[in-house]
């Protein structure tokens, strides 16, 4: 099996991404086609800005439309409660009849790494690569016994904030970090990578739905990255142009009629892009490598 080398993530537009996935015209392949790598979030330099915390009051007004089943390993009671708040948010944002299974582990991670998450597998969903949760949704059943999302969070990071209010200065809001990471696990990821100076936005010949919505430029007619030649310098230049945008009707509706700007994040090292809208709602002192 090949590996997802580079992943990208969109903002809080889960419904948009799911809607962008091609309609089910055929059942997903019975076997996964790749083993994705989890996407990490790193602690950034100290910031004087406070974390922006999702509004749990607003969230509580919506009924869950998806069920998450989380297996916690090593979590404290307070960490578990904060994790569950993030799960609850996603459960009211996504819609699926198949419970989404998560294995969440509290364990020592590398220096500065706050957490990582990703699906267990990539699947061929009618010509697009999708992750476990979406493949399961399309199939109407759990296709593989592995967890649909594998998440790890740092037990050796000392500045977590597990409370429900804004994180004090210098603290990192665990709820926000988990919300971000679970986004990767439910499909906010792309396949942009650069190897030997050649860019690609596919794996095993497939794009994700996210890749299909990335453009070189801010307009709705700007060139789509996935239509550029695979393994080309043209695509490598686009991926490192600092001029890549995530564009869809729902993104524009949620972002003041604009597409969401992305920024290159050491693509050659196999890391992710973050849209500016996500960075605003994430802990300000977090970044991607
Ligand atoms: Ca599974």
Structural class: alpha+beta
Helical residues, percent: 10-25%
Q: Reading side by side through the largest sheet, how are the strands ordered?
A: 4-5-9-6-3-19
Percentage of residues in DSSP E strands: 15-25%
Q: Which word captures the global form? A: globular
Structural notes for this entry:
The protein is α+β, with helices and mostly antiparallel strands and 289 residues long. It has one domain. It has nine helices and 19 strands. The protein has helices at residues 14-20, 56-59, 77-91, 132-139, 174-185, 209-212, 233-239, 249-254, 276-281, and strands at 2-4, 34-36, 39-43, 68-73, 100-107, 113-119, 122-125, 128-131, 149-154, 160-161, 172-173, 193-195, 198-200, 214-216, 223-224, 244-246, 260-263, 274-275, 286-287. Strands 4-5-9-6-3-19 form a six-stranded mixed sheet, with helices on one face. The chain has a five-stranded antiparallel sheet with strand order 15-14-16-17-18. It has a two-stranded parallel sheet with strand order 1-2. A hairpin with a 2-residue loop joins β12 (193-195) and β13. α3 crosses α5. The longest helix is centred in the first third of the chain and has 15 residues, at 77-91. It is globular and about 50 Å long. Bound molecules: calcium ion. Calcium ion (CA) binds next to loops.
């Amino acid at each position: 099996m090949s590996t997802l080398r580079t992943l990208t993530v969109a903002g809080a537009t889960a419904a948009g991404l799911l809607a962008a996935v091609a309609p089910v015209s055929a059942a997903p392949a019975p076997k996964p086609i790749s083993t994705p790598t989890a996407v990490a979030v790193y602690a950034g330099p100290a910031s004087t800005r406070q974390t922006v915390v999702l509004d749990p009051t607003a969230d509580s007004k919506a009924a869950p439309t998806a069920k998450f089943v989380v297996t916690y390993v090593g979590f404290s009671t307070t960490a578990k409660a904060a994790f569950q708040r993030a799960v609850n948010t996603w459960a009211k944002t996504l819609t699926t009849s198949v419970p989404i299974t998560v294995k969440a582990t509290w364990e020592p991670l590398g220096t500065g790494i706050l957490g990582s998450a990703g699906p267990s597998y990539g699947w061929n969903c009618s010509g697009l690569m999708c992750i476990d949760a979406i493949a399961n949704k399309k199939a109407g059943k759990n296709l593989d016994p592995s967890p649909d999302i594998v998440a790890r969070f740092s037990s050796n990071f000392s500045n977590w904030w597990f409370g429900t209010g804004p994180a004090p200065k210098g603290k990192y809001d665990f709820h926000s970090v988990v919300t971000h990471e679970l986004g990767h696990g439910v499909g906010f990821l792309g396949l942009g990578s650069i190897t030997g100076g050649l860019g690609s936005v596919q794996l095993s010949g497939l794009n994700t739905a996210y890749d299909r919505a990335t453009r070189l430029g801010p307009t709705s007619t700007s060139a789509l990255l996935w239509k550029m030649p695979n393994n080309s310098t043209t695509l490598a230049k686009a991926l490192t142009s600092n001029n890549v945008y995530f564009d869809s009707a729902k993104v524009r509706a949620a972002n003041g009629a604009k597409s969401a700007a992305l920024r290159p994040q050491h693509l050659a090292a196999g890391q992710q892009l973050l849209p500016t809208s996500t960075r605003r709602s994430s802990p300000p002192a977090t970044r991607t490598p």
